[in-house]
Amino acid sequence: MDTRWVAESGVIDLYVMMGPSPIDLFKQYSSLTGTTNLPPIFSLGYHQSRWNYNDEADVKQIHDNYELHDIPLDVVWLDIEHTDGKRYFTWDGGKFPTPHDMVAKLKSTGRKLVTIVDPHIKRDDNYHIYKELKDKDLFVKRDGKEFDGWCWPGSSSYPDFTRADMRSWWASKFNYEDYKGTSEDVYTWNDMNEPSVFNGPEITMHKDAVHADGWEHRDVHNLYGFYVHQATSEGLVQRSGGSLRPFVLSRAFYAGSQRHGAVWTGDNMGEWSHLKISIPMILSQSVTGITFTGADVGGFFRNPSAELVTRWYQTAAFTPFYRAHSHLDTRRREPWLLPEENRNIIRDAIITRYQLLPYWYTLFYVNEKEGIPPARPMWVEFPKDPNGFAEDEQFMLGPAILVRTVTEEGATGVNVNFAGDGYDVWYSADDFRRIPGGSKAYLPVTLASVPHFYRGGYIVPRKDRVRRSTTQMTDDPYTLIVALDSKGAAEGQLYIDDYKSFQYRQGHYLYRKFSFTNSVLTSSAIDSTTFRTKSILESVKIVGYSSKPTKVTLSSNGVNKELSFRYEEGTQLLTVRKPAVNMSDDWTMTISTQ
Amino acid sequence: MASLLLAFCVIVLPVFASEPIPRGVSRAKGSFYKAGVPFKCLDGSQTIPFDQINDDYCDCADGSDEPGTSACRNGRFYCVNKGYKPESIPSSRVSDGICDCCDGSDEYDQKVKCENTCIELGRSMREEMLAMKKLVEEGYRIRSEYAAQGKTAKLEKQEQLVSLGPKREVLGQTKDELMLKKEAAEQPEKAAKEVHEAWWKEQKAIREAEKEKAKAAEAFAQLDTNQDNLVSMAEMQARAEFDTNGDGTVSEEEVTILLTEAVDTMDLAQFTDTYWELIKKVYKPPVVEVQEPAPPAPTEAVPPPTEATTGDDEDDDSDFDEVNSTCIQDDFDEGDDDNEEAPPPPTEDNFMPAYPEETQVLMSVADAAREEYNKAEKEYNEVDREIQDIEKFLAQDLGPDDVFYPLRDQCYEYTDREYTYKFCPFEKATQKPKDGGTETSLGTFTKWEANGDDSYGSMKFEKGLHCWNGPDRSASVKFMCGTENKLANGAEPNRCEYTFEFTTPAACHSLPDDSESEQPDVEHVHTEL
């Protein structure tokens, strides 16, 4: 293979990672650039954004409609119009006179707010951020003067994020007392941090702008956005005294940006082709370590049809960062504004997302530990299957779920490549129908169809109850989906902690292993830890169990009890009712057939 | 643990009801849940033991077995809310740490302490209902006045229409008759005027020819320097203006080209008839001495200096139409002359003489006929316009009982942080920056739009000023019951799509119904163990 590399400046350091497996590669690459830190669980929920929710009444209306239509939601976002004339860290006092009350309203149902903080600083001596940076001489220079570029506020200067002292100053600005109106329920979005300079070459900063120690912008361009993300993320950690995990979304990113939070695929369009291509975009970012990523649901520009919006919600439910966002000039398209059928289907898609959050959260824990991305191209899980190498329409969510959502307009069916060989088994998520591995099938779909499949041999933890947001799910009980392989075995993990703090780094978490073999399901600790959850096991669904059991018993803490169950012959689904054992405990569930 | 929970949550003992009702079940559905009897899911899908109701595990596909827990994703929890109104909430909100029911019954497990706010809410609801009832009553009273006004106005207009119709017919006949009379008088007038004007045109042509001849003679005299009554080649060559190639001398060739042929000598007749036409373009008359009075008009062979005043159409034939029976003094520009002399008096040369007496008689007859006709036409048009206005008015949809009649020709304003919005029902909606600036159209009235059962729910305004990168501006004004006409709550949910609320007595459709089910639940008292 021949490749050619060109750099704007400097010398290229080349690292060769030897693999041999894709999983090995992720581990090797992340040893160089780091991994995605475990996000607070709310950030894996659903986000509702728009440029812009106009005022406090508008935010309340969004909140109240999600309540009215009983659709789960974790975060409402405010774009640039919430500020006083695009002066970040401020509020437009006319439209947002009482941000604390607004946040309290969101908090009352367990929800959060994200505000945008961009790195271009309006050149206005009456703006405290500008004045302080100017007085401290922390701006990027050009021709010996403060670099002056055009961005949202008009004439702007750009803090020199390559300076460590600048970054700590920036981080300090996120303290609750400095950034008025914020609290631990308010998180941050960094946009335009490439940086965007409307009147600059390629709409970014001039290559000869000068940073600290005389470095020209050409030398540090890729690092600039990275550093903005880093400084903001550190600010969010520091404001809580180091106790709470940050959440920062960034548009610019670079190798290692995963350490500082989420990114998204940028300003896309409400077109079918953009929905389709969002999958390979997200997978490309995932395999290069940037794993907490997603595309704007519905598309940023244009007015998508109700069908496209619906399909987008269905697909994005299986991508790491799940946010609907839209441009100022577009028509509103929040779920309740769509026809009832679409609204209900979107609600179902969002619910599916929330039900799988225990699995997502576990995948992100594994991601932090080992660098393996939650969203994986087929070849990651099936490196020997050449059908998966160029596959852009289906992908794996972790090792256990195959996703082939509909991304075609007016689709009546989808082609699915059920990877693997004769030993592999797949189960349709909607009816647990068994499909052999190493096969291709055309599956008919309706608008409500969200084709995804459980992989035989894996156990997926779910929380099947519907709540308003992740906050109310904390103590909710679990359901285990035990999808048996051709030998009747399966295995899976579950990670639990307090979902928001750094205490898991002090061993305050639960990491459980479930394994099913010879009709016995056991739960055991992977790590010895101190954390206890209030959550219990609500139900176990054993998929592909070939004969009707006579008895199911649970043994935990030396106590045995018999459990009731249901068995469906047709689908070979065995549902065990209410084991009601605490998820922190070791237990064994034995299924008898005579 | 599960059995403990069960004991805690299933036993519900309403004091006045004969049978216990499981938590979260309404009285209406209570009979489906019989203690000790196997429960059939309300969708009929299966039957489960009674002790599996509210046992925090979802057995029924329709969620009907878990009305009092969050186990089913599609269940409903019924709050009794004694003192307030009962409510049905999604059962996913049971035990989620958020107080949804005012009686706190959704958080029965005490994970959070919910204050019972039903009595207070009930009181304020009753106060609100009372206030609303008063408001609607008062609004409805005004609405009746509006309806009466609308009815009166329509009747009045209809009556007017009844009398205006025949009036217009009569005026129309008169107008038509006078039109014929006018045409009859204009025909001889036109013919007589044409005769006079043709004569004048001829006269003018003759005078022009004479003037030209005099100019030629004068030029001849100037050129004939030896006064032999002949202008010779040499005399022509003596004139500098004939040096067409500008070489300082006048060659024979130059003269020959000018005259289009070789000419030795010309007498006055030849000069005038044949060559003057060619020579006059180049010929320069002698400069008039300063102290001499202004030369008479005929001597001015080259017109440019006076073009500003005489170069217009005054001398054209078309001018005749405007010339009346007397000569019209052209409005000579006073500032045009350097000397302070008054403008020259009109001369016969420039103006057509008055029409002959008999023509003037015809003209005044025609003038009188025209005036009469114009008057009749004006009267007819006035009545016609009045009728059209009334018909337009009668065709307008003024709502049930014409209650929106008083809103016509009115405008209402609403000011927010940045703009003052103006709403003129049946006409337009506009926006204007608070600190001045131009008014922007948000659209003109196009139609009523329904809001629920109310087909007069809101007024739609469309085709306002186009938005850059967006649609034409439009506005929707929602009509709500109120005792006064007031515009409020402007918003722009989509770019350049505005919404407003307009309270008006005209939207107070009916008296509030007292016998609604939204009555506080006073009779149902229950206790939980």
Automatic annotation (TrEMBL), chain A:
Residues 37-363 form the Glycoside hydrolase family 31 TIM barrel domain. Pathway: Glycan metabolism. Residues 371-460 form the Glycosyl hydrolase family 31 C-terminal domain. InterPro entries: GH (IPR017853), Glyco_hydro_31_C (IPR048395), Glyco_hydro_31_TIM (IPR000322), Glyco_hydro_b (IPR013780). Keywords: Glycoprotein, Glycosidase, Hydrolase, Signal. One of its GO terms (biological process) is carbohydrate metabolic process. Signal peptide: none annotated. GO terms for molecular function: alpha-glucosidase activity. It comes from the Eukaryota. It holds the Pfam family Glyco_hydro_31_2nd. CDD domains: GH31_GANC_GANAB_alpha, GH31_N. Belongs to the glycosyl hydrolase 31 family. This is GANAB. It comes from Bugula neritina (Brown bryozoan). The lineage of its organism: Eukaryota, Metazoa, Spiralia, Lophotrochozoa, Bryozoa.
Automatic annotation (TrEMBL), chain B:
Residues 359-393 form a coiled coil. Residues 290-351, 509-529 are annotated as: Disordered. It comes from the Eukaryota. Keywords: Calcium, Coiled coil, Disulfide bond, Endoplasmic reticulum, Signal. Residues 211-246 form the EF-hand domain. InterPro entries: EF-hand-dom_pair (IPR011992), EF_Hand_1_Ca_BS (IPR018247), EF_hand_dom (IPR002048), Gtb1-like (IPR039794), LDrepeatLR_classA_rpt (IPR002172), Man6P_isomerase_rcpt-bd_dom_sf (IPR009011), MRH_dom (IPR044865), PRKCSH (IPR036607). GO terms for molecular function: calcium ion binding. Residues 409-510 form the MRH domain. It holds the Pfam family PRKCSH_1. Residues 1-17 form the signal peptide. One of its GO terms (biological process) is N-glycan processing. Residues 310-322, 330-341 have a biased composition (Acidic residues). Residues 293-306 have a biased composition (Pro residues). One of its GO terms (cellular component) is glucosidase II complex. This is Glucosidase 2 subunit beta.
